[in-house]
Amino acid sequence: SGMLTLALDTLVIAGVRLDSARLALDARDRMTGRIALGLGSATGPSGRTSFTYTLSGDTTWVVVDTLSALIGDRQWTLASPARVTLDSTGAAVDSIAVVAPGGARAVVAGEFPSRRPVDASFRMYQLPLADLGALVQTRTPLGGLLTLDVRIAGMRSDPTMRLTATADTVRIGTVRIPRLDARGVYGSRRLVGDLRLLRDNQPAVNMTASLPVDLALAPVEKRLVDDTLHVSARADSVDLALVEAMVQNINNARGRFQARLDIAGTWRRPTFSGFLDMRGATLGLAQAGVQLRN
């Protein structure tokens, strides 16, 4: 039994810069104890967590009873105590859920064995993209709400994945996007998905992709697989008012456009084709004081 305290300053974890970190271990005996961790940042996120642990043979039982983080101006907290089991075959998480005011919620649960199939899920509901930007300390302001559902199954070396996502009132810097819908399926080292940009619940831009990638849940020699790829983007009779709504420095946009972009080939030797057709189009560049017409 005994106590141990460790303090660090100015460190980077997964690309996030932190000004301080403090770890405290309170070992009640050889088999049980409590660990508390606090992280601080003057310009980014800060948080703390604490959990108890129990050791038995090659198995460790962990109960997380405190988890809170201040991200931007929003406080995230643990919804309820969560249990994690670690042993020689992998890890299992019953459910770790964190919540924030306004209905925002993030949940991870599942089993992550090393020699048996993985069965896991990660879900986010109404997650403010501003919080995501503050967490990773991006220089570009983000806005909007993200709802995401990811399911993972199969062996670590060859998993399958399914993803659905919706983002509303998205803002990336000065670019504004009314709504984005995305779906994706991964298996046998290929990711297939589609992305739609919607305005007034109607698709304005559609994008599909089939990409040879290796998303194994283990180290691999290379993630980009030497096989054919295809990406296609389509915009059919889109009102230029959508472009004005998305880009802050464009005004007085009128007319319509249609466009197509196709990418084929391989990662090393891609090929490109497409076209852009604008009809009765005018738009202004506010900062330059220029009016363009086709």
Quaternary state reads single chain
Radius of gyration: 24 Å
Structural classification = mainly beta
Which sequence of SSEs, written as H and E, runs from N to C? EEEEEEEEEEHEEEEEEHEEE
Helical segment tally?
A: 2
Shape: globular
The end-to-end distance, rounded to whole angstroms, is 78 Å
Largest sheet composition: 19 strands, antiparallel
Report mean pLDDT, rounded to a whole number: 89
Q: What is the total tally of β strands?
A: 19
Helix fraction, binned, reads: under 10%
* Poorly predicted sequence stretches spanning 5 or more consecutive residues: none
Strand content: over 45%
Task: Name a few traits of the molecule.
single chain; about 290 residues; mainly beta; 19-stranded antiparallel sheet; 2 helices
Protein architecture, described:
- This protein has 294 residues and is mainly beta.
- Helix content is 5%, strand content 71%.
- The chain has 2 helices and 19 strands.
- It has a 19-stranded antiparallel sheet that branches.
- The model has no long low-confidence stretch (mean pLDDT 89).
How would you concisely characterize the structure shown here?
The chain is mostly beta strands.
Layout of strands and helices, then pairs:
Elements: E1 2-13, E2 16-27, E3 32-40, E4 46-56, E5 59-71, E6 74-78, E7 82-87, E8 90-100, E9 104-113, E10 118-128, H1 129-136, E11 142-155, E12 158-172, E13 175-187, E14 190-199, E15 202-211, E16 230-239, H2 241-246, E17 250-265, E18 270-285, E19 290-293
Antiparallel strand pairs: 1-2, 2-3, 3-4, 4-5, 5-6, 5-7, 6-8, 7-8, 8-9, 9-10, 10-11, 11-12, 12-13, 13-14, 14-15, 15-16, 16-17, 17-18, 18-19
